[in-house]
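In response to a reviewer's request, we include the raw inputs and outputs for one of the modeled complexes. The two entities were modeled together in a single run.
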Amino acid sequence: MAEQPTSLERFIQGILPENPVFRQLLGLCPVLAVTNNMKSAITMAGAVLFVLFCANVIVSLIRNLLKPHLRIVIFTLTIATFVTIADRFLAAYLYQMSKTLGPYIPLIIVNCIIICRCEVCASKQGVITAGADAIGTSIGFGLALSAIAAVREILGTGMFFEIRVLPAAWPDWVVMVLPPGAFLTFGLLIGLVNWYESFRTAKAGRTQGQTT
Amino acid sequence: MMNYLVDIFLIAVSAALINNFVLHYFVGICPFVGVSRRIEMAFGMGCAVTFVISIAAFISWAITTFVLVPGAPLSQWIAGFFVPAETAAKVDLTILSYIVYILAISSSVQFVEMYVRKFYPPLYKSFGVYLPLITTNCAILFACLTIMANIVGVDDPADAWDLGRSLVLAIFGGVGFTIAIVIMAGIREELDLCDVPEPFKGAAITMIVAGILALGFMGFTGVDSGLRKALTPKAGNHALIEEGPSSPMGAQITTNHHIG
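The model returned the following structure tokens for the whole complex.
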């Protein structure tokens, strides 16, 4: 194994160059399901930040004790523990939001992003790097969620954070807040990101070591 | 009896078409995007998911009913050794549900994989490779959570789902997943011949096609309330009709109402 990226590299890579949603296409279930308004998208991103950070730190602390064939189970159980904590917290302090998010909070357990980060980063590197990686990846995830949620909420209801931004004459595209809108918005945004990436690469005339 | 059959039928229709796991709840998107290139592969994946989801539903129904819910027989019996009977009757282990489910799912997938590999090698060849992938498939956990919500989340213990309803939800949820992924694979096979703009190749066009597919499946909205009205005998069943359109899966995940 060659040298590992440093904390700062991990942090920055998680945000845009290796954005978990648009670049790696991981964890699509919450991306599509909770992005019909900004509030739930932000709450979801916060929950993922908490779970990913705690799981990464714990896995990183116990990385020398892990047995290779049991590691996935250990990851999953660690994640499930923190998801339970996050779920109870939301139920206690943000009850309405926890009703809205419904099953998608427990479904963080099977979100590939977290297992992927535990596997790629936390089980190989120190606590600080793992923490930085978790924060970077979560910010990237949050940005992606907000991007989709902003498009869907503005077009679907004419509001942003429940504040009206489009004139009342705007005919609400109800379909944007319904399931099909999620697929359409996400597909168009992936296309946009790919297009921008190819445009930039062609302009700079160099290739960066990215997954495209 | 009649009501029970109607209920089962509506749960089946609802899980397979109206509230399709992939196109309505967005669970199981990863295989939906990843394994939908060829129809045979998609069908194999769908069968594997249906198979695992039924086993997981059976296990999670049993665990929820006998161990997790407040006053469940098994936990009550074990707690009875250590604490007085009236305290034991209140033992509530629902907080452990996520951990228990994920452990049950992953271990049952392991067992199924070993069993199939040993006793049905041709079957293993056709869908065994997908089995490990399924452990982290949200659809399985989602089915378990829905079943739990309908056992723990109901106000009247008599309304709690029995094994039949849970299995029907799981099997037809799997069937719905298979329908969606096979349609998707069919479209993608045709899509290979089309001139898709460069940036949209791969995941982007898949998502857009899925969006159009979801629009199509939206046409099923409300079918269940219509069916319920049509199937319910006229006299003395107003309560059933008043439950509204989404009643079969309507209890949703309200695990926290007795704590929050």
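As requested, we also summarize the result in words. Chain A touches chain B through 46 residues (CB under 8 Å). The radius of gyration of chain A is 18 Å.
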